[in-house]
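Notes taken during the Thursday session

The instructor put the following on the board and asked us to keep it in front of us for the whole hour. The protein is Cof-like hydrolase. We were told not to look anything up and to reason only from what is written here. First, the residues (288 in total):
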Amino acid sequence: MAIHLDLEAELPADLLTVDALALDLDGTLARNDKHVSDATIAALARLHATGVAIIVATGRVYPATVGIYERANIDGPLIAASGAMAVASVRDYAHGVAGAASYEPMDDALYARILDFCRKHNLQLVIFGRDHLFAKEDGEAVRVLAERNEGEQPIVADLEELPREDRLKAALFASDAEYERIRADLAAEFPNAARSYDGTIEVTSPATDKWVALRTILEGLGVPVARTAGIGDSANDLPWLREVGVAICPSNSVAAVKDISAYEIGSNDEDAVAALCNRIAEAREAHS
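Then, after some discussion, the predicted structure tokens were revealed:
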């Protein structure tokens, strides 16, 4: 069970020795309006300057996330599409450096089952690609996901013909009532499906998730998992938060995340991550 972290007191030793900080985006870094504040951007840049690797791990599409690094003027790894896309260096990726990114798209069989499931249950579907969102038609799912992805408007396309490399994640949109109706079928058909707070049901290749991507990135950085801290708020953050050396949750987190976290900070809408990053940076600066 998480204990409240008093940022006015001396920081626990395990927070002073972290070499990497992995952060969920929605509900953690971003405020409730889906945007990351200037104060949080400045705090990330400050902590990065002390030698801590910053790793944003999100369900968003890549272009809706990389702006965080650009605003902070930092380089580093980025995990997008719930782990289906892992970028070792956002600057290398921007310059087209070979091997800067790895992908784990859904295979043909899984993708066909998703399309069939949506037809059977009359669900709207948005597909996350490497650099774009794709949808068969406009609708509520498109509006919700565009808002969540920094205004990135899905490209209207024939999803049946979408190339495999752009089938990174499926987002099925279901109201609460629809979700209860399809819940049993969903669990049987897609055991790794996770429902996010905005009503979307996310499915990726069973070969990946945020933890698989994060573990690979940490190996590339040469950072031990034990010296990695992570901050997340939702049930889909549980697999990777259970693995990192220090798990931290904002106060708006679901109960299951609080149960496995070491520390609890303030809410995402209060820029609690910024306050924590500044406090860790201050302590590291004092000892440098």
